[in-house]
Specification:
It is built from 14 helices and 4 strands. With 391 residues, the chain is mostly helical. It has one domain. The strands form 2 sheets. A two-stranded antiparallel sheet has the order 1-4. Strands 2-3 form a two-stranded antiparallel ribbon. It is globular, with a radius of gyration of 21 Å. It comes from Lentzea waywayandensis.
Length: 391
């Protein structure tokens, strides 16, 4: 079953990710491979403004993808059975990850390096990069594959931790038992939101004692982001399909206020803490026994849980219309996400000879990559005549 609001939100999020990667390629703080060879960077003041306006969304948009995936995962497993579900995920998620890590990504990184005048062989681009088996933006699907298989193989449990089943000491009606004890009939409550926020924040802080933010592991698994990603996948599964249809008004209003308030306060707090140059001041926030790391983990926990619920709720209230063009974009979104990396690196390399500031190049690369990625997605999905699923 397709849900227009979820499809439309997915298109917006994919476009945002592509545009965000384009900006990061020209940022001093980095975060996208083109920053390793970029010819120009943003003025520090511009980068600080961009970080204040766009940066907070980067703390929770990826978690929203996992949240949406979690909403549809239990139902998909129940319809298809474990074996078919795992087999389809291996093809849909595993194949693009392997092709990207082994062939596509090292090839286009090699092109970008040579375009920058660096004499690097393809083999060096493949074996010499840290982390090994870097798949670019497709780390997302590799991690989602791991989580999806784990959920599919998990034994059925009749109930879940009481924080998700009680509100103010009162038991809710018992939901239909399902995988992991999370079915489509469990209601998300304010207690659920607060509980998951604390879990995500706490486990994020603890994880980053070992794996600091932006650290690399074999396969580029982004282990430092796993608490957020897994937490949101499970929260989506707890809410189930009903959550995709309608976020309760109470939860919607609460999460909207939390997100708006947090984003409004962040620039002021950053200024008071003296964080005016991200490239120079970011290190203490990335991990370790520091108050800065604890603060960032808490902010991420707040934004990812509240932000994901708010975005879904906002889409349900404002993005429900879907004509043929919007349907085509929704079908194209997954392919657009898969092909964005090579397109971004190719466009940035092609614009390299032009003597333009980063403030001009980054938007050009971003807009071009969004258009080309979705155009390729449209062509591919139209050719195979299959619609992308919301799951």
């Amino acid at each position: 079953m397709r849900l227009s609001a979820v499809d439309n939100l997915k298109v917006i999020l994919v476009a945002w990710v592509i545009g965000g990667h384009a900006l990061l390629g020209y940022a001093a703080i980095g975060g996208w491979p083109y920053d390793e060879v970029n010819e120009v960077t943003f003025h520090p003041g511009v980068e600080t403004v961009l970080a204040a306006l766009i940066g907070p969304s980067g703390l929770f948009f990826m978690g929203t993808f996992y949240f949406m995936a979690g909403i549809f995962t239990p139902g998909s497993i129940e319809r298809k059975g474990r074996q078919r579900f795992i087999a389809e995920r291996l093809v849909r998620l595993g194949t693009p990850w392997v092709v990207s890590a082994v062939v596509v990504w090292p090839t286009f990184v090699w092109i970008a390096y040579n375009g920058a005048g660096r004499d690097v062989s393809w083999w060096q681009a493949f074996t010499g990069r840290q982390p090994f088996l870097d798949s670019g933006s497709l780390w997302f699907v590799g991690v989602l594959l791991i989580f999806s298989i784990a959920i599919a193989l998990a034994p059925p449990i009749a109930s879940v931790v009481s924080v998700f089943g009680r509100e103010g000491g009162r038991k809710h009606s018992r939901p239909r038992p399902s995988l992991l004890g999370i079915g489509t009939e469990r209601t998300i409550t304010p207690r659920t939101v607060v509980g998951m926020t604390m879990i995500v924040a706490g486990t994020t802080f603890l994880t980053r004692l070992v794996f600091p933010a932006r650290s690399g592991q074999v396969g580029d698994l982004h282990l430092w982001w796993w608490p957020q990603c897994l937490g949101m996948l499970l929260l989506g599964a707890i809410g189930g399909h009903k959550l995709a249809e309608r976020v309760p008004d109470e939860i919607y209003r609460m999460t909207r206020n939390v997100v708006v308030g947090t984003i409004a306060v962040l620039p002021i707090a950053a200024a008071l803490m003296g964080v005016l140059d991200l490239a120079k001041n970011a290190e203490p926030f990335l991990g370790g026994l520091t108050w800065q790391a604890a603060t960032l983990a808490l902010i991420e926990g707040i934004l990812v849980v509240a932000g994901s619920l708010w975005l879904i709720g906002l889409a349900q209230r404002r993005l429900t219309r879907q004509g043929p063009f919007a349907e085509g974009l929704a079908r194209s979104a997954y392919v657009a996400f898969v092909v964005q990396g090579p397109i971004l690196l190719s466009l940035a390399t092609a614009l390299r000879p032009l003597h333009l500031p980063a403030e001009v190049k980054a938007p050009l690369v971003g807009a071009g990559a969004i258009a080309l990625s979705f155009a390729i997605g449209w062509f591919v999905t139209s050719r195979r005549g299959a619609s992308a699923r919301s799951s």
